[in-house]
Amino acid sequence: MAANTPIKFFTGTASRYLAEKIAKSFGGELGRSSVTRFSDGEFQPAYDESVRGATVFIIQSTFPPTENLFELLMMIDAAKRASANKVVAVIPYFGFARQDRKDRPRCSIGAKLVANLLTASGVDRVMTMDLHADQLQGFFDVPVDHLYASPIFVPYLRSLNLPKLVVAAPDMGGTKRANAYSRFMNAEMAIGYKLRKKPNVVEEIKIIGDVANKDVVIIDDMVDTAGTITFAADLMTDMGANSVRAICTHAVLSGPAYDRIEKSSLIELVVTDTIPLHRQSDKIKMLSVADTFADVIEKVYNYQSISSNFIV
Fold first, then answer.
1. pTM for this one?
2. Alpha-carbon gap, residue 29 to 22, rounded angstroms
């Protein structure tokens, strides 16, 4: 993309709250777009201003319903057909990321399908945050800027001044992420060994590591039904932890999640605004990713390195 081309920001319906903050942080404003809805539920996004020759950043997380993903695809298609110079999909939360492999016979690999759909729609670049699995970047044939929420979470963790910090992974899949935090924070580490009988249902968790008299911070990329983190938090509290809090980038929070968090021994759950909260809770603290995305967007637009944005 050429830095001398005009830059324009647009948003899908579901992420306007975040897109407005990103555009403001960048020093711009959202472009005008609209969605025509038909009586049968069909919809058609359109741009209400010219995007010819512009570098277009379309901001939309793809959390449920699936219309959010399809709206993003249609906005990309509309921008390409309107002669945009480049189209960048800014997807703070990349939905379907948990479907990154065939974990049972005759199932789809949804994450790869979504990557194919984005490419087919004409996207030139994808920008996202804390993918469920790093290898998803390889599903794309266009550049992917995979950001991390650590530049947001680390300063907050440091501000807590926890005297006996232990960084914990809720399951074996999160050990790499937790290990990065523990090494950067010079803290001990604990790991949860999780057994499941079916998705979203935790049968048993065993804690590997010493959490007695420690201040535990559970690190994960997302919290969905909150079964794992609340189960682990209660278990760690029973094992003698002084405090247990969780830091999760994407607040999916479906089903019984809010009730579980309220009833658990978690002191707090710290999340970002990649997904809006369905309801407020005194235990949930939200930090914004707007400044991080705005900074990276500016660097990408001007062909500058973004490596300085990776501190963990």
1. 0.94
2. 9
In angstroms, the Cα distances linking 250 to 52, 73, 265 are 34, 21, 20
The one catalytic residue in 194, 197, 198, 206 is 194
216: which residues sit within 8 A by CB, 6+ positions away? 166, 167, 168, 190, 233, 236, 241, 243, 244, 245
Please list, in sequence order, all residues whose beta carbon lies within 8 angstroms of the beta carbon of residue 159, skipping any fewer than 6 positions away.
Answer: none
Task: Map tokens 């950043």 to a residue.
Answer: 57
Give dist(CA 24, CA 18) in Å, integer.
10
pLDDT tens-digit profile of 65-107?
999 999 999 999 999 999 999 999 999 999 999 999 998 999 9
CA 143 vs CA 140, 190, 307: distances in Å: 7, 35, 15
Give Cβ neighbours of residue 42 (< 8 Å, ≥ 6 apart): none
Query: Around Cβ 237, how many Cβ atoms within 10 Å?
Result: 18
- DSSP 8-state assignment for residue 193: E
List Cβ<8 Å contacts ≥24 apart for 38-41.
none
- Give residue-wise pLDDT tens across range 119-157: 999 999 999 999 998 899 999 999 999 999 999 999 999
Is position 21 annotated as part of the catalytic site?
Answer: no
Neighbours of 37 (CB within 10 A): 10
Which ranges in the chain belong to alpha helices (H)?
16-26, 67-81, 110-121, 150-160, 175-184, 227-238, 257-263, 290-301
Q: Can you read off the two tokens belonging to residue 180? A: 């990065």
